[in-house]
Write a structure and sequence with these properties.
The complex is a heterodimer of chains A (316) and B (292). Chain A has 316 residues and is mainly alpha-helical. Helices cover 75% and strands 0% of the residues of chain A. Chain A has one domain (72-315): Orthogonal Bundle (MetI-like fold). The model of chain A has no long low-confidence stretch (mean pLDDT 88). Chain B has helices spanning 8-11, 24-29, 74-80, 111-117, 132-142, 148-161, 165-168, 181-194, 211-224, 237-243, 271-276, 281-287; strands at residues 34-45, 48-59, 63-67, 91-99, 102-103, 118-121, 199-203, 229-233, 246-254, 261-270. Chain B has a ten-stranded mixed sheet, sandwiched between helices. Chain B is globular, with a radius of gyration of 19 Å. Classes of the chains: A mainly alpha (316), B alpha/beta (292).
């Protein structure tokens, strides 16, 4: 039409203005944008409310007896109870995750992605690992109870009936193993194939390619998995209850160094859930203070991994 | 041929050999200029026959070009020459592929060692996401060059070889990812030269580059062919005509066993002949632009 009947310049200009200034076509796009914004605002508000509330309730305890709270042992009175044993237990759980779960998980991911022949078996294993990541943590607690606490009692702690920090650390390591494998495998898969070919092209062996090129490139993703795994392990309470974390009194000393990894133990989430069940304002404040401390512990534990991740990301 | 012209292979000085590696020295002493001799090569991906009837020889200090339409198996054949196809689990090779008298697919041959002698430049520039220096030093380090002075020398001479030295000599420690596409591809060529190979395989090395960068790489190839045998896969017929000494034309034919098309080598002749009076009408149709 435009070709057969050229429009007058004036009407063309008017049409043009109305054409290029109208914007009713993008209504659904705008609605989608608002929905997305609502999502992020909801998540953010919930987080802020939680943190503010916890800090608010816990602030008297945090300001009055922070040092005391960190150095005292578990007790029956809120004003003298402390978190030293819980901090110790959580610290060793973190160490177990870093020393057991991370190396095992990353190795498994490297094997699956770089070494294993891709086929029905690897797909089967892959699906199962993904399913394992979704298994409720109590189930891992039962596994820890039967394997580490009972079957391997001689190793995990003959005197504590196996209810030791070793059992806890190993149970939580297995709990987070699928997370580490999945995120690491994802990161390794995302390494451009050109980099591998370049390595093989100059005569590198598979190991040399993995060590020098694949792992450095995948490191940020692997470290993200480590952060997730560590946060999960430090926050889990249910499996620890099953492997026998102490909820009431713990006779071991207040020192941050354990006399033995085979001793009975407790951990921050256990203490928090125990304290939260006790009556009175004072216990409530202590619980909130413990939550703040646990958040701080998780942040500190992850700060290292995040710094390392940024370092590798810069190198890309 | 003087011993100086022979690539490092003949001197046998730059690399330790494992006892399992074949006795190269004896074959080199009576070596002709024939680097590769391919006879009745077939490559399968699983059950699928990707390319067949490949018969050709590659000469030292010559550029051999593979041309042909997409899917005709040029790259597949090229990747057999340094056993790069080993990385594809379902790939399988039949027929014979001799490199300086040694069966490349023989049971005792170590694919990693093969790739140290037969370097490869890929279609898409693929520098390591590391510094320019590290890109070049990686290969020599694998070969046991440890001293910093030696590595520095190799880095400098390789970059000069690839006509990149003047552009990057002041920023060897900065990331290779900051280079332009053409510079990255020359870096990849330098990286390949740094391990002192005998042959350089190039898989459409200029397809991601602009005409100026392409011209530089083509100049570079003329330089490099003084010392190396070069095999290049290209989609660009003019490029094959410009740079190569011999040209192999591949095409696809309907596979009698199935409906998928199999690549086949139609003609292998001196480039001049392929582009002026080829033996096969299909070649003629292709090079004159009437098909493919």
């Amino acid at each position: 039409m435009a070709l057969s009947q050229p429009r007058q310049a004036a009407s063309l200009a008017a049409d043009l203005v109305s054409d290029i200034t109208r914007n009713e076509r993008d209504l659904s796009g705008k609605a989608f944008r608002i929905a997305l914004l609502a999502g992020i605002i909801t998540a953010f508000v919930v987080l802020v409310v939680l943190i503010v509330d916890v800090i608010n309730v816990g602030s008297p305890v945090l300001s009055e007896r922070l040092g005391d709270l960190l150095s005292s042992t578990l007790g029956s009175k809120p004003e003298t109870s402390g978190l030293s044993q819980a901090l110790r237990g959580s610290f060793y759980i973190g160490v177990f995750v870093l020393l057991v779960a991370v190396p095992l998980g990353v190795s498994a991911a490297i094997f699956l992605e770089e070494y294993a022949r891709q086929g029905r078996l690897t797909r089967f294993i892959d699906i199962n690992i993904r399913n394992l990541a979704g298994v409720p943590s109590v189930v891992y607690g039962i596994l820890g109870l039967t394997v580490f606490v009972q079957a391997l009692r001689a190793f995990t702690g003959p005197d504590s009936n196996g209810r030791s920090v070793i059992s806890a650390g190993l149970t939580l390591s297995i709990l987070v193993l699928p997370i580490i494998i999945i995120t690491s495998a994802e990161a390794i898969r995302a390494v451009p194939n050109g980099i591998r070919e370049a390595g093989y092209g100059v005569g590198a062996t598979r190991w040399e390619v993995v060590k020098s090129h694949v792992l450095p490139y995948a490191a940020p993703g692997i470290l993200t998995g480590t952060v997730l795994a560590l946060a999960r392990a430090l926050g889990e309470a249910a499996p620890l209850i099953l492997v026998g974390a102490t909820t009431g009194f713990l006779t071991s000393g207040s020192s941050y160094l354990p006399s033995s990894l085979q001793e009975r133990f407790t951990a921050l989430p256990i203490v928090i859930s125990t304290w939260s069940g006790r009556p009175g304002e004072d216990w409530r404040a202590s619980t909130a203070a413990a939550i703040v401390i646990m958040l701080a512990v998780v942040l500190v534990a992850n700060a290292g991994a995040i710094l390392l991740r940024n370092h590798y990301e810069k190198k890309r | 041929m003087t011993s100086d012209q022979l690539p490092e292979l003949a001197k046998g000085s730059f690399r330790m050999h494992t006892s399992a590696s074949p006795p190269e020295v004896s074959t080199v002493s009576n070596a002709t200029d024939e680097v590769f001799k391919v006879a009745d090569l077939k490559v399968f991906y699983g059950q699928f026959l990707a390319v067949r009837d490949v018969n050709l020889t590659v000469q030292a200090r010559e550029i051999t070009a593979f041309i042909g339409p997409s899917g005709c198996g040029k790259t597949t054949v090229l990747r057999c020459f340094n056993r790069m196809n080993d990385l594809i689990e379902i790939a399988r090779v039949e027929g014979s592929l001799n490199y300086r008298g040694i069966d490349l697919y023989g049971p005792a041959v170590n694919a990693t060692e093969v790739r140290r002698r037969i370097g490869m430049v890929f279609q898409k520039p693929n520098p390591f996401p590391k510094s320019i220096y590290e890109n070049l030093a990686f290969g020599p380090r694998l070969n046991g060059v440890k001293k910093k002075n030696d590595l520095d020398d190799i880095v400098e001479s390789s970059l000069k070889r690839a006509a990149l030295w003047d552009e990057v000599k002041d920023r060897l420690k900065s990331s290779a990812m900051g280079l332009s596409g053409g510079q990255q591809q020359r870096l990849c060529i330098a990286r390949c030269v740094a391990v002192k190979p005998d042959v350089i395989l190039m898989d459409e090395p200029c397809s991601a580059l602009d005409p100026i960068a392409t011209a530089r790489i083509e100049d570079l190839m003329q330089e490099l062919k003084q010392d190396y045998a070069i095999v290049i896969v290209t989609h660009n017929m003019q490029q094959a005509a410009r740079v190569s000494d011999r040209t192999a034309f591949f095409t696809t034919e309907v596979n009698p066993e199935g409906d998928r098309r199999t690549g086949v080598l139609v003609e292998y002749n001196p480039t001049e002949k392929v582009f002026s009076k080829p033996d096969d009408t299909r070649t003629e149709q292709y090079v004159t632009g009437r098909f493919g």
